[in-house]
Amino acid sequence: AVQFFAPKILTGYSILLTAGPTREAIDPVRYISNHSSGKMGFAIAKAAADMGANVSLVSGPVNLATPAGVNRIDVTSTKDMLDAVMAEVDNHSIFIGCAAVADYRVAKVADEKIKKSSSDMQLALVRNPDILATVASHTPRPFTIGFAAETQDVERYAKDKLVRKNLDMIAANDVSSSELGFNADSNALKVIWAKGQQDLPATDKHTLAKQLLELIAEQIHILKD
Ligand code: CTP
Ligand code: CA
After folding, report:
1. Considering only CA atoms, which of 124, 164, 137, 112 is closest in space to residue 32?
2. Which residue stretches of the chain have pLDDT < 50?
3. What pLDDT is recorded for position 177?
4. pLDDT of the residue at 68
5. What are phi and psi of 215, to 5 degrees?
6. Dihedral sign, Cα of residue 113, residue 61, residue 19, residue 206
7. Which residues have a Cβ under 8 Å from the Cβ of 31 and sit 6 or more positions away?
C-alpha cells in the first residue's frame, strides 16, 4: 500500500547528512573517485524530511534531484565536504555519514594537464581526513551514524568501525554484488549499535531509508528517557 503520510517521528530534530562520492583532482581534466551514486543518502534525506526533520544534505557530485524541503550544499573534494560539514554541525543533533569519501587525494594537483610520456606514471597520494570521525569527536557531539561499505567480513569490519570512530550506530552494506549497494536501486543493511543489531533485508533504498530512520529514532528516544 502507498503510504501518503509518514508519521512525523523526527519533528524537532535537525539532521545533517553527507551523500555521494567525493572527487579528487589529479590535474584540470582528471580525477580519482568511486562508484557511489548518492541514492542511499538522498533517500535518507527525503525520508527524514517526510518524517518531520529539518534536513541539510552535503552532497558530492551526483545526478539526483534535491528532495523537497531539503537544504542541499554541493561540494566536490573531501576537503570541501569536511569544511561544509563542520560549518553546519553545531546546528544539527544527528549526523549521518552516507558519503563514499575518497580515502586518498593526490599530493600535488598539477596546474596543467599532465602529458603522457613513453614511460609509466606514478601518483603520490596522501590520506584524506575522516569526516565521520571528526564529527564524532566534535563537541557538542551529534548522535552519529556511519556507513560501512565492505566486500567481505561485513559484521567484523563494521563493528570495528563503530568502535574505532566512536559512533552511535553503523549501517553496513555488502558492496561485493552489483545488484545491491553502490550505484544500485536496492540495498540491504546490517545496522549495529552498542547494545544491539538488526538486519534490514534487501529492498528499495526508499523503504530501507525509512527503516533505518525508525531505528535511529528509537535509539534517540531511549537516550532521552
Ligand atoms: N568516511 C568519512 N571520511 C573519510 C572516510 C570515510 O567520513 N575520509 C565515512 C563514510 O562516510 C562512512 C564511514 O566513514 O560513513 C565508513 O566508510 P568506509 O569507506 O566504509 O570506511 P573507512 O574508514 O574509509 O575504511 P576502509 O575504506 O579502509 O574500509
Ligand atoms: Ca573508505
Report:
1. 124
2. none
3. 74
4. 96
5. -65, -40
6. negative
7. 23, 24, 25
Average pLDDT, the chain: 94
Q: Is 132 in the pocket of ligand 1 (CB under 6 A)?
A: yes
Domain ranges of the chain: 14-105+126-224
Q: Where are the alpha helices (DSSP H) in the chain?
A: 39-50, 78-88, 131-136, 154-164, 205-224
Lookup result for grid cell 558530492: 60
For the chain, the residue count is: 225
Handedness of CA 128, 24, 180, 65 (dihedral sign): positive
Fold observed for domain 14-105+126-224: Rossmann fold (3.40.50)
- The annotation status of 79 as a binding-site residue, yes or no, is no
Ligand 1 atom 20: residue of nearest CA: 148
Q: Which residue has the cell 533517500?
A: 43
This prediction has a pTM of 0.95
Cα-based distances in Å from 86 to 95, 135, 202, 206, 223: 11, 7, 33, 27, 24
Give the span between the Cα atoms of 223 and 116, in whole angstroms. Answer: 57
CA distance 193 to 216: 10
pLDDT at 181: 67
3-class DSSP assignment, residue 110: coil
Question: Peptide bond preceding 140: is omega within 30 degrees of 0, i.e. cis?
Answer: yes
* C-alpha of residue 37 to centroid of ligand 2, in Å: 15
Q: How many Cβ atoms sit within 10 Å of the Cβ of residue 217?
A: 18
Residue 100 alpha carbon to ligand 1 centre in Å: 7
